Amino acid sequence: MTLRKILVVALLGVVALVGPGLLPARLGGTYPSGDRPVPDTVAALALFQSRVERDANAINLTVLAQLYARRSRETGNVEELASAETAVRAALAQKPNYGPAMLTLASVLAGQHRFDEALTTAHRAQQLDPRLGALGLVGDVLVATGDYEGAREAYSHLAGTPGSPGLAARMAHLYELEGDLEKAIRQTERAAAAGLDQGAVGEEAAWFQVRLGDLNFTVGKFGESDRRYRAALELLPGYWPALAGRGKVSTARGDFDRAVQFYELAAAVVPRPEVMVALGDIYSINGELRRARDSYATVEIISQLSPGVYDRNLALYEADHGDPEAALALAESGLEERRDVYGYDTLAWAFYRLARYGDARRAMDRALSLGTRDPQLLFHSGAIWLALGDNRSAITDLEAALELNPHFHPRYAEEAREMLALARSFD
């Protein structure tokens, strides 16, 4: 890659100001054209590391932080965010009112799930320079913490940018949470095309293909889902969420050998908890119990290395494979800062595993309060209804889960069918 291209790639980081799990500022769309370069983040990082050694000014430090953050998104390695934070705080030590650095810090804090700090910092960035669009990140943090009305209000102030893929993607995510999956897919497709038209490349574009893959998987469209994951890998070879996505589709199709291959490739990039649990589940189904135990054990190790970031993953793991009391403690702790749909679902499932079905039902009602149509949430809800003896409600939710995607999970989908048959026999 030429020096000029490296500089272009590095400077793209100025507008890509979001951490993992939140919406990127620039988004990509459908299959790439052959002349679209894949940003070489490693080369750009090396360039700006050397620049900072020679001249540690606020601009160089901020771009370096943004490159660390992008590398974290590409690899899934949250440790890169610690380096990003160090760099951007050094920039702010020099220029406390430098808006791009303030917004970069807010993004990094959000990626570390330090949401209260991220929200305060994003508001500060908005005050320093409203042109940066920090209200988009404000809205993203509010979605992550369950303040959906606040998020919608923040996004409404971005409405002056019609056709913006970032705004369209954020609204699509709200539609998804509200249960309008068809509208979420259409909106995401439009945003994806707009992103490509605006020149999105690499992780920015690949991320969006993964979103389309995930949405299509939710509604059981495995062919389209896999096509989107493959598109993401064309845009960014080795992109771990796309590899994991292809593993998920292969599992749904019953091709466990191929699923293991994809999940192992994803784990080789970064052994994230969701990947290791998926691998463990497939090994368990195949009767490879030692390999399953090794995969599950990795989940606990990774979660302990990055406390706070993976607590929800660890809570669900403990509920299904470990200690339900530990799952409950993690779920309750997580809700202190993140009162969102999936936080209440995690709490409900921990209560269910402890046979505290009344508490589970109350938490599950909160989880479904927006009308979210997620097969796993609906399965959890149906299981809780069945445990409470409400067979009609159990049938409704279990049928809805299996209608959306009859192979939504390698273990839960079969359990859902067994529970549905049991509920029907009692009804």
Structure description:
The protein has 427 residues and is mainly alpha-helical. It is 73% helix and 0% strand. The chain starts with a helix and ends with a helix. Helix 14 runs antiparallel to helix 15 and helix 20 packs antiparallel against helix 21. It contains 23 helices and no strands. The protein has a domain at 1-200: Tetratricopeptide repeat domain (Serine Threonine Protein Phosphatase 5, Tetratricopeptide repeat). The chain has helices at 3-12, 41-54, 58-75, 79-94, 99-111, 115-128, 134-144, 148-156, 165-177, 181-197, 202-218, 222-235, 240-252, 256-269, 273-285, 289-305, 311-321, 324-335, 341-353, 357-367, 375-388, 391-404, 412-426.
Question: What's this model, at a glance?
Answer:
The chain is mainly α and 427 residues long.
> What general outline do the C-alpha atoms trace?
globular
Query: What is the CATH architecture descriptor of the domain at 1-200?
Result: Alpha Horseshoe
Average pLDDT: 89
Quickly give the structural class: mainly alpha
Order of helices and strands: HHHHHHHHHHHHHHHHHHHHHHH
What value does the Rg take, in angstroms? Answer: 21 Å
Spans of at least 5 consecutive residues whose pLDDT stays below 50 are 1-35
* Strand element count: 0
Helix share of residues? over 70%
Major sheet summary line: none
In the CATH scheme, the class of the domain at 1-200 would be Mainly Alpha
In angstroms, what separates the terminal alpha carbons?
66 Å
CATH H-level superfamily title of the domain at 1-200: Tetratricopeptide repeat domain
Query: According to CATH, what is the topology of the domain at 1-200?
Result: Serine Threonine Protein Phosphatase 5, Tetratricopeptide repeat
* Count of separate DSSP helical elements: 23
